Structure of Carnitine transport ATP-binding protein OpuCA:
Amino acid sequence: MQTLEIQRVHKSFGSLKVLENINLTIEKGKFAAIVGPSGCGKSTLLRMVAGLETPDEGTVQADGKVIKQPSPERMMIFQEHALYPWLTVGENVEMGLELAGVSKEERRKRAQEVLKTVGLDGFYNYYPSQLSGGMRQRVSIARALVMDPDVLLLDEPYGALDAMTRLTMQNELLKLWEGSGKTMLLITHDIDEALYLADQIFVMSARPGKVVQTIDLDLPRPRSRHSQRFGELRQEIMQLLGLEE
């Protein structure tokens, strides 16, 4: 597992300053979330952790090593599932293993194991077009899990799903995390989602994004969205985001 550390990070795209002096640490095995307004640089920050972007200043590290490029130790899951429609579910899940030179027999075995883990046992030979939105996102998660990463990076993974499917997927994600010990970093606009899932929430300001508050959650698990403390924390975050007076 990996501890993630972001130190004094700044990032601009041309004259547009996106991130300013970001400092945060996520201990290995923890579930962290970042919430903030649209355009504040949340996804850019996540892409830095994935090794897909580099900071203009500062460092992004995993276990003390500067992240310079993508690694199978850190896998990213996007809002859009980005499955290849001409490949079966199994072939989509196996793609990373195939690129890594894993044998066909081993690829199939590992793909079937993770498909069972995400509730898609028996769907190996289906195509993405035959699946619901929630099922396609499960395939996307399976594609990341099959690489057995230390860190899962989730960029609004359930933003395109309906409310009921979203709640179901949140519970499934919790079960995956609790059984794996992996480090999770979630980007979300949904305050309740962050409160329900995370150990730690980083609240970001509008662009240029800064971390204005780090909240270490004292909510016991399993969590109730209707508890008094849950409501108090929701209101605190809404005030930090300027959504309530």
Q: What stands out?
A: The beta strands are 4-13, 16-26, 31-35, 57-62, 65-66, 74-77, 151-155, 183-188, 200-204, 211-216. Residues 163-180 form the longest helix (18 residues).
